[in-house]
Every structure is written in C-alpha cells, then in structure tokens.
Amino acid sequence: MIELQDLSCQFGESRAVDRINLTINTGELCVLVGRSGCGKSTTLRLINRLIPRSSGQIRIDDQDVEQFDARQLRLGMGYAIQGTGLFPHWTVARNIAMVPRLLGWSRQRIDTRIRELLELFDLDPATAARYPHQLSGGQAQRVGVARSLAADPPILLMDEPFGALDAITREALQNEMLRIQSTLRKTVVFVTHDIDEALKLGDRIAVMDQGQILQHDTPSTLLREPASEFVDRLFGTGDRGLKLASLYPVSTVMTPTKDAVSTSMTTIPHDESVRQALSLMVWHDTHALTVMDDRREPIGVVRWDQLAGGDRNA
Amino acid sequence: MRNALAPTLWLALLAGLTFAMPLLEPLLAWIEPDRQSVLYQRESLAALLLNHSMLVVGATLVAALVGIGAGIAVTRPGGRDFLPLASRLASIGQTFPPVAVLALAVPMIGFGNGPTLLALMLYGLLPILRNTLTGLDGVAPAVKEAGTGMGLSRPALLLQVELPLSKRVILAGIRTSMTINMATAAIGSTVGTQTLGDPVIAGLVNGNTAYVLQGALLIAVLALFTDSLFETLERRWAIA
C-alpha cells in the first residue's frame, strides 16, 4: 500500500504538487491523469525519490520512504518511462538483467527470468540478443516494461509508458498490460494524459490539476458523478455514455441461456465491451447478439434494451 | 583484419623512412644538386622520432586525463556551475596558437622538452575537453533517468552508461588532439626540444630543401599513422 499524506513539492515559487493525499491499495492499478504540467509526473517521481519532497509524507506499507536508502528504495520498485529509456549499448537481455544484477542474482536465475519475461510479453526468445535500435517501437516498449518487472518488484511506477506509440500498438500494449496485471497484481502507479487509457487501465483514477488531486474514484464514478466542472469537462460530454459502455463486458448485461441460439444472429465474445455490442448492433442493424465464450460456444443473448446499466450490475 | 591494414602500412612506411633514408639520397641530391650533404645527420632520425613520439604520447595522456576528468567534473551536479566556464575555455583555447605558448613558456621553464610538453598539453587538452562535454551531453536524458530511477548509483551510471555511450565522441577528441600534436610538436625544435622538426628548422636556416623534405615527410607519415590507428579503434568500437 502506498500512502501520500499532505505531500507537497515546491520548485522555487511554484508548487508542482500541492498538499495531496492519496492511498493506493496493494494490487491496485492507480492512474494519475491530467494535462501536462499538472504535477502527475512529479508525484510519481516523489514516490521513488527522484525528486525530493518539500513537505508531507510518503509511506509504503506503513514505512516512510525517507527511512530507506534512495537506491535500495528504487531497486524495489519497477520504473518504466516514455521512450523506454533502454540502454542503447546493451542487448535486450543485458537491459532486462540490470536490476537483478544489481541485486546480485546468480547468472542462471537471471537467464531464467529473462526467458520468462520475454515469454510473458510475447517476445521471440531471439530478441534477447538484439540491441534496442533493432527493435520496433512496440517491442522496445515491451522490453522497457519487462525490464521494470525484472526483479519482480511489488510496486511498479509507469510514466506515460505507451505515450510515444501509434494508436494500434498502444492498444495492443494496453491489453497486454491488463492481461499481465490480472495475473501479477502489482501495485501500479500509472501516469498518463490520455483519458481513454486511464479509463481502460485504472482500477481507480486520480484526476490532477495544478498540483492538486481533484477527484480519486473508480472510472464509472468519475464518469457518472464528476466532483467538479473540470473533471466533467476532462471526461468529455458528448460520448460519455460510450466511455461508460466501454468499461463493462457484455457478460454483465446479457441474459444467460442454455438453449440453442439461432446461428443466424450476429455473435460477440463474452469479454468484449458493451460499447462494442452497441457498435455491432448499429452496424448489423439488429436488436440482439449471441454472446460466445472462449470456446466459441453460445452462452447467452444480449438485447438492445439491456445495454444500459452495466455499471450497476458489475 | 582489413581495418588493421592501414595503420600497419603507415607504420612500415614510417620505419622505412626512419632507417632507410639513405636510399633516397639520389632523389634528395636531385632536388638539391649543389649541396654536399643532403642527408640530415646531426642526430639519428630514429632518436628524433622516438623523442617526438614520446613527447606527444605523454602530453596526450596528461591532456586526456585532465580533459576527461574536467569534462566529467563539470557535468556532475556539484560542478554544474563551472560548465559554461569550461566550455568557453575549450573554445577560446583553440584560437590560442601553440607558438605563443612556447614563447611564453621559455622564459618561465627554460629551453628543452619542458616548454614543448606544456604547449602540447594545453593545446591537446581542449579538443578532448570539448568532445567529453559533447559526448556526455549527448546521452539521452530518458536513459539517465531510467538508470537512476531503477537504482543505479551516480558512479555506476557514469561508468556503465554515460561513459560507454560517449566513448566514441571522447575518442574522436583524443584522435584530433593527438594527430594535431604529432604535427605541432615539430615547432618544439625552435626552443631546443629534439623533435622531427630539427631537420626542418636546420633546412630552413641553411636553405637546404632536402633537410626540410626529410623532416616534413616523417612528420606527415607519423600523423597519418596516428590518425589511422585511431580510425581502426573507432571502427572497432562502432561495432561493439
């Protein structure tokens, strides 16, 4: 658990971070979102002490971070940043091995770990011998995240890790992030300025502006009950319903049925979002879809009038 | 292997010119037909070459230590204040002619190897300092931040990340410094240092073009050998 208490950070006259309070539970992915210069990156760097705090407290599992040696603290936290920050003169394997080597792991253990991580991130084992400049943007960013997970730290700090990628690669990496997080359950602090990314990844989202946290809530609460006009505007007005609909899988609104379902009906995988279901209905000019499970067996039906209210069922 | 060929060839030519200069006597005699002596014999060319090279290697070693050291110091958090001063010195120093350093040094430390060594060190320092600053400055901030953020200590970041990433640029500075100094050292002969400039000066004083030619040839080949040696090293580092 990470607790920020009355945390401030002052640069000269201006307060980059202004008395914020934030609790991030163990295993939770917390997104810090806001416009550039709102203090979200500064907050992240206060946690691993890349920037010294001016006042307040940062506690990790009830221990003040100032009690640790800064290096020891950082070795215990994964750190992934925009543009990867991979060392260009080291191979992928050497890059991933950095923290484990600093921690004095045996060669064998490091090699095993590298293989595990490449597999986890769906990277070819041959990638290990390549240099960063030989990788595509998406591969390099995967390696960047893999490197931050190398020593299996309980906490992961990510500063716009997918910011420099094209839309398609970014979405692929977001999905991978969700898949990996669902098994690893790290405590993640994720900084982004992309609202859709925040809604997609965050268990809870802290909206920041001018060094302050305006609201810290679950994605659906932020959409349904914005605490201020700023949050309201930030999350858009026109397509808010669609944003909400993209938060829930169709399995939360469907009617389960064991009966054979007419195969002429358009189908949708059970883990697709309600938004996708709506899109399919509009596109295929239909009022109902057959929901399929992972083995492509029909498990239920979702009708037009059931689409609303997914967040209340979940 | 092909890369190592060029320095080897230059070295062979250098050795040939040093030890077999008498073979060129007909050619030199053809250039200066009225002279009795066309071969420089006041001192063996080998001894001149040795002293010349030692001076330059010594001066470059000191210049590299000081230049790289200063370049590192002024890019650390504690020395940042001196960065503008250091980079300005590095630029201004280049405009200062080595002859002037010699002229200023002689009254202070007398004739001989001393003033030449001093001039070469000062003159060779600046390309190294400048390239060290450029090289360290060229390391991407994201790379440094990632390193620090993941728990590298400052010395480890310098040794494992910053220096390896800037070593080619720094090496290029040493290459410039040493190659220029191989040629510049010849001026040392004007203040009594034994260098390959001796035959050149003697030739100029006596109007003997053959002497000038011998000295100039050796200095040129020596500089080319030095340059090709560094080029080989730079290529090797480019692959790694």
**Global shape of chain A:** globular
Number of helices of chain A: 13
Uncertain runs of chain A with pLDDT below 50, 5 residues or more?
A: none
Distance between the termini of chain B: 16 Å
Number of strands of chain A: 14
Q: In angstroms, what is the radius of gyration of chain B?
A: 21 Å
Q: Describe the largest sheet of chain B.
A: none
Q: How many distinct beta strands of chain B?
A: 0
Query: What is the end-to-end distance of chain A?
Result: 25 Å
Strand content of chain B: under 5%
Assigned CATH class of chain B = Mainly Alpha
SSE order of chain A, as H and E? EEEHEEHEHHHHEHEHEEHHHEEHEEH
Question: What class would the helix/strand composition of chain A place it in?
Answer: alpha/beta
CATH fold title of chain B: MetI-like fold
Q: What's the order of the H and E elements of chain B?
A: HHHHHHHHHH
At the first level of CATH, the class of the largest domain in chain A is Alpha Beta
Helix segment count of chain B?
10
Strand content of chain A: 15-25%
Summed over residues and divided by their number, the pLDDT of chain B gives a mean of: 84
CATH homologous superfamily title of chain B: MetI-like
Largest sheet: number of strands, sense, barrel closure of chain A: 6 strands, mixed
Molecular structure report:
- The complex is a heterodimer of chains A (314) and B (240).
- Chain A is of the alpha/beta class.
- Chain A folds into 2 domains: 2-243, P-loop containing nucleotide triphosphate hydrolases (Rossmann fold), CATH 3.40.50; 248-313, CBS domain Like (Alpha-Beta Complex).
- Chain A has 13 helices and 14 strands.
- In chain A, the strands form 3 sheets. Chain A has a 6-stranded mixed sheet with strand order 6-7-8-3-9-10, with helices on both faces.
- Chain A is globular and about 65 Å long.
- Chain A starts with a strand and ends with a helix.
- The relative contact order of chain A is 0.12.
- The mean pLDDT of chain A is 88.
- Chain B is mainly α and 240 residues long.
- Chain B contains 10 helices and no strands.
- Chain B has a single domain (48-239), classed as MetI-like (MetI-like fold, Orthogonal Bundle), CATH 1.10.3720.
- In chain B, 40% of the residues are buried.
- In chain B, helix 3 runs antiparallel to helix 8 (154-184).
- The A-B interface holds A 45, 48, 50, 71-75, 78-79, 81-89, 98-99, 102, 144, 147-148, 157 and B 140, 142-143, 145-153, 161, 164-165.
